[in-house]
């Protein structure tokens, strides 16, 4: 829910950012264009009214010096009609002597444009004025030009004309620009919402899947195809989910297998205890036999629990194996010394051929455990009086420890499974021998941990050969 709100706000943030950026660019461009257009139009108008005013001033010069008001009026009216404006002729004191509209005669003017001409240095001037009328007013341009006669300023011509058309044209341009701007903003919002939606859609899907997975449904996948960072993230996420699901399945299988294996010796013990408990006058030998069986089951449980603990320790120690440089012969000797008494009990001979000795970089305790499991199996699954041979050999950067027996062997169908947890070829026999089916699984885990492998060859009734192959230290040499 929170993520949805976040994505929603991201979408709007993108839209606003786009909008602000485009707004700034568009605003600057449109202000620049409209002021350029306005400047151009005003400039053109000023040039034309200046022209008309200057010409009129030239025409007025001789008439003003002669005080010929009639001629000046005629020129003012004609030029005013031709150019669509109003002409005033002022004397040297700024008093209107002629008005083409005939209503300001005798009025003294003191507008800036007039003073510029009569009292300043300029021969012409102009300015803008807002004229109020019954329609609310309009903008006009005042243009003045000095009337010179015999090199002396004798008066001025003031020309006024409306420039409301230019103001209106500029205002219309601005209004149109604003309309286009608002329209563009609308399109930008729609496009940015659409594009951000395209970007956030897979993230939303990913979030939904993550929520479902965190609620326990490990089968969920995002299934986002394509390229790009988000698609790659989703594909990696799916891979991770697959692995988690796999691990979870393995964990629950392991728990159920382990519980099952632990229940079996407990059930046997319960039967043995109950038969002693509920039977009267049980002979002492029977008691002893039953207690011996119970003791055997306790040993079985003990070894199962030891193996389970070892496996779980290997899970957590996966990155912390304590590597040491050791000679393979020393590890094998330690294993044989520990297992020889069991072999002797059953008259089994353990032979060794370690003439091809080599050094390994390994975790000695773990490697010893692996070799021990292989030799123990060889003894366990070989008949009385049989033979077990342990050979070492190294070749092409690999060292091999071969454990061979002439025992019961196994058929081909089992070879692919014996490294699985709790897998035993003959469960009844394993019960007799106290096997739990974890030994070879542990061997394989240790081999993989060292970057090696374990191979098996076996023939039913003839015997088996297990070979533990591990990578050698680079500079290893034959050691006597
Ligand atoms: N050398 C061998 N000869 C014949 N069968 C073997 C040999 N080694 C292993 N097996 C078969 O493979 C199975 C799995 O062996 P593994 O060592 O994993 O379990 P286990 O010996 O039954 O019990 P434990 O966990 O105590 O070692 C055994 O039950 C046995 O059937
Ligand atoms: Mg075993």
TrEMBL record:
GO molecular function (one): phosphorelay sensor kinase activity
What are the HAMP domain coordinates in residue numbering? 197-249
Q: Which PROSITE patterns does the record cross-reference, listed alphabetically?
A: HAMP, HIS_KIN
Q: Which chemical reaction does it catalyze?
A: ATP + protein L-histidine = ADP + protein N-phospho-L-histidine
Specify the protein name. histidine kinase
Q: Which GO terms describe its biological process?
A: cellular response to phosphate starvation
Q: Where would I find the Histidine kinase domain in this sequence?
A: 257-474
UniProt EC number = 2.7.13.3
Q: Which UniProt keywords apply?
A: ATP-binding, Kinase, Membrane, Nucleotide-binding, Phosphoprotein, Transferase, Transmembrane, Transmembrane helix, Two-component regulatory system
Q: Name one GO cellular component term.
A: plasma membrane
- Give me the segments passing through the membrane: 12-37, 178-195
For this protein, the record's CDD domains field holds:
HAMP, HATPase, HisKA
Q: Where in the cell is it found?
A: Membrane
UniProt feature coiled coil, ranges: none
